[in-house]
Amino acid sequence: MSPNRRHAAFIASGAALALGLSAFPAFAVGQQASTGSTSGFTSTNALGSTSALTSTKPRETFHRLATYPVFQNAPAGTDPADETVAEISAVSEDGNTLIHTDAAARRIGFVDISDPGTPRGLGSLSLAELGSEHDEPTSVAVVGDYVLVVVDSSTSFTSPSGRLDVVDLATRTRVRSIDLGGQPDSIAITHDGARAVIAMENQRDEDVLADTGGGEEGDLPQAPAGFLQFVDLPGTDPEAWQTRPVALDVAALGAAGLDTPQDAEPEYVAINPSDTKVAVTLQENNGVAVLDVVTGELENVFSAGEVALEGVDVDDDGAIDQTGSTEAAPREPDAIGWVDDEHVATANEGDWKGGTRGWTVFEAATGDVVWDAGAELEELAVRVGLHNDDRAGKKGVEMEGLAVATLDGVRYAFVGSERSNFVAVYDVSDPASPRSVQVLATTNGPEGLLPVPSRNLLVVSSEEDSAEDGVRASVSVFGKGQRYLRGAAGTPAFPSIVSADARTEAGTAKPIGWTALGALSADPTKRDRLWTVTDAAMSPTSILSVSTAGQRGKNAGPAVIDREIVVTEDGSPVGLDAEGIWARPSVKGKPGGFWLGVEGATGPENALVRVSASGRVEERVSLPDDVADGLGKWGIEGVSGTVDRTGEHLFVALQRGLTSDDGVGGYARIGRYDVATGEWAWFGYPLSRPTADGDWVGLSEVTVVDRDTLAVIERDKLNGPAAKLKAVYTVDLPERDPRPGTVPVLRKHLAIDVLPALRATNGWTQEKLEGLTIGGDGRVYAVTDNDGVQDATGETVFLDLGKARKLFR
């Protein structure tokens, strides 16, 4: 049969294995029966509606426009692998030039964002060359034609020092340097440009005992205490600018119940909309102080208080268990912003004693809490697949950055998760009732959140940089509203897949936990349903149902994980490194269950695992000994199958070549397994050559196109701007099986270059394109594996690549 006719026959059946057989049952939440039905988002949870994740109204939505890796802006001759970060950012008054701190490289960087979709590096200014090799920028601001750079020049915790460098924005030359008398952290400028306030932290040494002796390393007090520097900025001549140090009243701090008031450590400053007050967080002291912005008089100081959490994951055990609780802990706020002239909001990152996984709105005059996020942000992280289980036993999502601004007449709070790599967007028009409206995926460690109201932009500076892992510090640019659609339908690129709610044993609604999706399969009969499975990043293993019903049309939204089946063996949940899944058709009216492709730590541990519809492991099929012995650490990466009059056959993709074959760089293997006879046949898949030193190319999925055509994902291990190969190829199987012991090499044909689709998200190009299937609706779907938010950005990209009939001709 010709390829077109073969494919037409397949499409007519609705799925590769439907063949008129009965559908899967309507699973509830598998073995975790206590979680009950998950028919959709619940109205009882503010984050449980799709509108809380992404607006379908273009005017109300933030769209990611660009992700710019700042290593590309390093001076000529710099090793691209050298660490370079983007921590805190400011923007020129015309909104076109971004300036960011780079403490790792002791410089500030300049980026042209006049076209926000195409940031362009403008070079950098070395602070080390202006001072010494110890000098690190901690914050940056712009007033008029000048950049104010706050520099930590300390060589000792006991003798802190720092300066304020005034840099001409046009010439990028320093025109004045002002001694600050201590170690600075953040800076804020009044809206009229008349004053600046600098938090002089004089930070503690985490490796020494407190001055009072005893306790643990890093405890306070550690002299000298911090203070504030007020800088008067009269006129346009920096030579006329003057500093005024303002100490914080120890007695007032103590009376307010702050921790170790004799060693105040200011962290972050913000100025209210009317330019009358400055608020400062004292993170290690767990407090907030409010001062008159002109006189520096202390108007109020209050403790940030404590929070106990219910319904959170507290164990870094691989499982996403949202039934835990934490004892009351200090908020220890980091960033702060004014919601209006009466209310301040804090991001409660925590330090060495606290952290409460959220953010809070306080009455500035009294310190009364008017709203607290509680566990809401952790639920949001779980829902969009950004839960970082490695941090579950510590401070969870760890909210660090916060900024408040008015864009298009709406007052927003932007709150950044340092450990789960996202920014939550809230409408704070009512300070007592913030409303979650969207989540924005970033690169690792978002810290600097910079709204640019005049241009309806949000710029996020992310500080984590690891060339070895292929994750680089970056500047991400988001634009609000229809002007930034650029032909899009109005739905943001992220999230492209989310989870619905399930019920816990206590009866509360919590989003289904998921991460690291490395495989896809069509449902045997349901046109708008797929199946996926979690890999070794999550334990126990979960098989997840994915609804694609709401992805297209006027009110399109993300795909929705709406059901969970926990895999069990011998009556207990089990963790498998499941890298492939195939949903079997029903057999004699009984649900067919699934075949999982499981990668092992060693060759012999690779296996095909048959699982019942309820998640029970029923059979394990090992690879032939000669194949298993030739595998290194790269094993099974995909499984698919067919059922016809000749029986049930499975197809398995091995990621790399065997040591017994033509080396690991020649060809990978695709195996066909006859379920009835237990016989294997093997075919070679010719791998493309790597394009960079240290790279490799391999297979990560296989799916059946028709009775003698397979589609596979072939990819490199590169990500970001270095990524070169993320593609779907097809191979036709020979009419006759190969002779035993032989491995004929197939011819491959490029069907889909997926790299443009991945880059069209305007985010960090993901490495692990790992799941592929043809749905019952005749469309080709793909998904990336987020590595469990470890050594990766954590973003999952779920793609509808188009009609299979057109793509697989």
From TrEMBL:
Q: Which organism is it from?
A: Promicromonospora vindobonensis
Region: Disordered; residue ranges are: 35-55
Q: InterPro entries of this UniProt entry?
A: Choice_anch_I, Mesenchyme-surface_protein, Phytase-like_dom, Quino_amine_DH_bsu, WD40/YVTN_repeat-like_dom_sf
The protein in question is named Esterase-like activity of phytase family protein
Stretches with biased composition (Polar residues): 45-55
What segments bear the compositional bias annotation Low complexity? 35-44
Secretion signal span: 1-28
Q: Does the keyword Signal apply?
A: yes
- Domain (Phytase-like) spans 513-787
- Residue stretches making up the Choice-of-anchor I domain: 85-305
Keywords for the protein's UniProt record, in alphabetical order: Signal
Question: What's one Pfam family here?
Answer: choice_anch_I
